[in-house]
């Protein structure tokens, strides 16, 4: 396949929404409120014609980015080439501007373990992830991003910090970052570290997309449940990042307790205001083309 464009050449998209099946119809009628849409690529693999039509309708209305949940880039086995080609087809059909998945493993010896599981922060893991990312980049003709995950235990065998691990992975694999600030905040609370020190230790120049969401508490543990409004500390982290990195888009995630699109739009507007705190804050090209009043407010 053709080489994907460099990260620096990607367009600024603005404030986007992760597409949940429960609000997809509302999304079609909300071009003035949503700058772009993130879709889960696995939802459209070998899909029913109605689902494929839904994806094509979305890509006709919005810029699209594709997100994966089961690539398992940290598994010490070659990637499933058939599955990879099927995902590449969805990326191409949706005209996605980039594709992302998680820095973790979800499979071992052909068994799906059903969760995003952290990797040992080690040289061996870096080599495994690098090889798998190279295979992804060879098949999918758009830039590839790795997302930091929330984790509730650490895998034995780590020889470096998580921040150093992330830096070395993306530099070795030469890919972008999908920086999930809620995952970072969750880990900082649960594992007792400074999220701002973490951000100073990773290559923010590689951040293309940011995820924000709200979590919930289970006794003394903060859970990344995507079930509540984005908390103030996460917005503070976003402000820190956008003033130090040419972020291309911020995606609001909400998978539980989904409110009205009006309420979600309020959070999208907060994201726009935070992004506008950059001295060189651009306006999304999509917003210009549809005359979005909301997006225009971030100029």
Give the % helix: 25-40%
Major β-sheet profile: 8 strands, parallel, barrel
Q: Estimate the mean pLDDT confidence.
A: 90
Identify the CATH homologous superfamily: Divalent-metal-dependent TIM barrel enzymes
Largest sheet: spatial strand order? 1-2-3-4-7-8-9-12
Radius of gyration: 18 Å
Mass-distribution shape: globular
Could you give the order of the helices and strands? Answer: EHEHEHEEEHEHEHHEEEHEHHH
CATH class: Alpha Beta
CATH topology: TIM Barrel
Number of separate strands: 12
> How many independent structural domains?
1
Structural class: alpha/beta
Stretches where pLDDT is under 50 for at least 5 consecutive residues are 288-299
């Amino acid at each position: 396949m053709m080489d994907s464009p460099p990260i620096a050449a990607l367009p600024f998209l603005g404030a986007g929404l992760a597409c949940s099946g429960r609000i997809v119809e509302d999304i079609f009628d909300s071009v003035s409120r949503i700058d772009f849409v993130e879709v889960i690529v696995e939802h459209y693999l070998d899909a029913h014609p109605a689902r494929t039509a839904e994806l094509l309708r979305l890509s006709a209305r919005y810029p699209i980015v594709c997100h994966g949940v089961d690539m398992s880039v940290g598994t010490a086995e070659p990637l499933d080439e058939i599955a990879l080609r099927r995902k590449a087809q969805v990326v191409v059909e949706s005209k996605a501007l980039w594709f992302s998945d998680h820095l973790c493993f979800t499979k071992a010896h052909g068994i799906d373990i059903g969760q995003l599981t952290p990797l040992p922060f080690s040289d061996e893991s870096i080599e495994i992830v690098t090889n798998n990312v190279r295979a992804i980049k060879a098949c999918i003709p758009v830039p590839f991003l790795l997302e930091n995950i929330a984790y509730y235990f650490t895998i034995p065998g780590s020889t470096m910090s998580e921040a150093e691990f992330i830096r070395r992975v993306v530099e070795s694999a030469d890919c972008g970052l999908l920086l999930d600030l809620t995952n970072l905040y969750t880990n900082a609370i649960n594992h007792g570290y400074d999220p701002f020190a973490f951000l100073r230790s990773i290559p923010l120049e590689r951040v293309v997309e940011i995820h924000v969401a709200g979590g919930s508490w289970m006794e003394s543990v903060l859970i990344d449940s995507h079930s509540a409004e984005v908390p103030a500390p996460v917005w503070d982290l976003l402000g820190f990042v956008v003033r130090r990195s040419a972020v291309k888009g911020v995606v609001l995630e909400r998978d539980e307790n989904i409110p009205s699109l009006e309420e979600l739009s309020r959070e999208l507007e907060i994201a726009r205001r935070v992004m506008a705190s950059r001295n060189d804050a651009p306006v999304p090209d999509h917003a210009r083309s549809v005359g979005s009043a909301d997006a225009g407010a971030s100029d």
